[in-house]
Amino acid sequence: MEQRKRIVSGMRPTGKLHLGHYLGVLTNWVKLQNEYDCFFFVADWHALTTKFDKTEDLKQNTIDVVLDWLAAGINPEKAVIYAQSHVPEIAELHIYLSMITPQNWVERDPTLKDLAKMVRNSEEDNKPNVSYGLLGYPVLMAADIMMFNVDYVPVGIDQVAHIEIARDIARRFNHIYNVELFKEAVPKLTQIPLVKGLDGQKMGKSFHNDIKISDDEQTTAKKIMQAITDRSRARKDDPGHPDKCEVAFSYWEAFGDSEIIETVKSECIAGKRGCVDCKRQLACAVNEKLRPLRERRKYYENHLDEVHKIIKEGSEKARVEAGKLLAQVRDAVRMY
Ligand code: TRP
Fold it and tell me: How many helices (H) and strands (E) does the chain have?
């Protein structure tokens, strides 16, 4: 049988995930796990590159991320789910890669400036905040990717520069040690458009405009009632403009079936659908769609031992694969 292609992707442990993660990333991962050998991991070392001094929530955030993956339907029988720091082979590979990566490759990483801004400034000190580890962010990512010699890396557009550096590092390794060990992994861009936050900006935890997978139904409904609609509409029987409805209609498009989307559209245009009623209905539709996810999350919240076991067993599986490749790397470099 032909070997399935391999995929790896990771998320930093930022805590509970929101609908942007769900629609933009997780629905895609859930599909991919049926077609590819998938490695999905929590990038907890990457979290340290900017939050080395703010680790109070690191453990809980890691668990929350995995809970949301499981809620969304990532299946540990299909995909390997692990924590980056539980696969020490990645750290060792990172050392070999760090030796062959020219300094100017990492210095030129276009996202480095943004990452540096995420490092908490101590009050009295405004100096640049780039640590040795942060500078190595793309090298560590290269290790994540090369460790499983994957074909594709599903990511958003913001990560493409990193994957390109990883590809250059893979090519350089093969060249320097005169081997054909590493594939040059290619980014697999997610098609789904960015999900807007309740205020019309990009949905994000720090913007306080998000709906979490783990929010309860009441909270979700309350949030949706604040979602921006058609700003030009003064009264509920004025004709509305779904195309100018900044947030609510885009949620209908994401969560409704084609029939309800058409109904919403035509009633809105005809002035037969007030924004308040429309959002009340929308909240029901969103809650209904998320109900099975939330039930799954509740189940795992009440069976945390199962979650720990999934991460532990996934990490063990990952280590087996990583160990095989690392042996070849050590061989190629001619380590004792
Ligand atoms: N840097 C990625 C992000 O912030 C997370 C990540 C770390 C990753 N290592 C990776 C993604 C390897 C894909 C492959 O989203």
Answer: 15, 5
| pTM: predicted TM-score of the whole model, two decimal places | 0.94
CB atoms < 10 A from the CB of 15, how many? 18
**CA 301 to each of CA 19, 63, 65, 118: distance values in angstroms, whole numbers, following the listed order:** 19, 10, 12, 30
- 8 Å CB contact between 200 and 228: yes
Q: Over the stretch 46-83, which tens digit does the pLDDT of each residue have? A: 999 999 999 999 999 999 999 999 999 999 999 999 99
End-to-end CA distance of the chain: 36
Integer CA distances (angstroms), 33 to 38, 160, 331, in order: 6, 21, 32
Q: Ligand 1 pocket test: which of 141, 149, 164, 169 has the largest number of ligand atoms within 8 Å of its C-beta?
A: 141
Alpha-carbon span 327 to 273, nearest angstrom: 65
Ligand 1 pocket at CB < 6 A? 8-12, 43, 46, 141, 144-145, 153, 155, 159
Question: The tokens of 111 are what?
Answer: 């996202």
Edge-to-edge order in the sheet of strand 37-42: 79-83, 37-42, 6-11, 152-155, 186-189
Q: Which two tokens stand for residue 227?
A: 């979602």
Q: Which of 298, 211, 204, 208 is nearest to 254 (CA)?
A: 211
* Residue pLDDT, tens place only, 224-271: 999 988 888 888 888 999 999 889 999 999 999 999 999 999 999 999
Pocket test residue of 21, 26, 46 for ligand 1, highest count of atoms within 8 A of CB: 46
Å from CA of 321 to ligand 1 middle:
19
Backbone angles phi, psi at 205, to 5 degrees: -55, -45
Ligand 1 closest atom vs CA 140: 9
In whole angstroms, give the CA distance from residue 52 to residue 48. Answer: 4
